[in-house]
Amino acid sequence: MANLFPTENVNNSVPLDDIKQNIPVGYKQSINFDDKSGDFSRNGQYRAITAAGVEAWKQWCMNCLETERYSKSSYSTDFGINTKLVFKLQDKSAREILLQKEITEALKADDYKRTVAVSDFKFNWFAPDAVEVSMKILGIENASIDITARLGG
């Protein structure tokens, strides 16, 4: 009878020592998330569709930007942006400076160390407590993504 259990190492996890030593572990694939439906993407057989490495990282970045820091107990306190703190400020330029700081800190807190730098911030205010932020994010292996996120409101 054939062996039902795999005999080779099929573990695709990242060694904990690599994460602790701040070694970038590269881009891993993930389940694809559909922003329009607000759910994971599925094929015709209702099986989850995977996202390639850089696309999965881009989706992680969007999730991080759209999550209010400290609001979800399932995330670490480094994940997300503290928009409540930002929108308490009266001066718009002070808000933009604090948003740049919050966004950069949140994206660089990635356990896999994929984010190298965040730059080229552009702000489009459409309400006193709502803004659309565009930025360029540079990752490891010279990957570069452009993201636009709506915050607040």
List the helices and strands and how they pair.
Elements: H1 16-20, E1 30-31, E2 33-34, E3 39-40, E4 50-51, H2 53-66, H3 83-88, H4 92-108, E5 115-127, E6 130-139, E7 144-152
Antiparallel strand pairs: 1-4, 2-3, 5-6, 6-7
Q: What can you see in these coordinates?
A:
This protein has 153 residues and is an alpha+beta fold. It has one domain (25-152): Nuclear Transport Factor 2, Chain: A (Roll), CATH 3.10.450. The protein contains four helices and seven strands. It has a three-stranded antiparallel sheet. A two-stranded antiparallel sheet has the order 1-4. A two-stranded antiparallel ribbon has the order 2-3. Strand 5 (115-127) and strand 6 form a beta hairpin. The longest helix has 17 residues, at 92-108. The radius of gyration is 18 Å and the shape is elongated. 18% of the residues are buried.
**Share of residues in strands:** 25-35%
Could you say what the CATH architecture is?
Roll
List the secondary-structure elements in sequence, H or E.
Answer: HEEEEHHHEEE
β-strand number: 7
Main beta sheet: 3 strands, antiparallel
CATH class: Alpha Beta
Q: If you consult CATH, what is the topology?
A: Nuclear Transport Factor 2, Chain: A
Helix content: 25-40%
**Overall radius of gyration:** 18 Å
SS content category: alpha+beta
Distance between the termini: 62 Å
Mean pLDDT: 84
Helical segment tally?
4
| Spatial strand arrangement across the major sheet | 5-6-7
What is the molecular shape? elongated
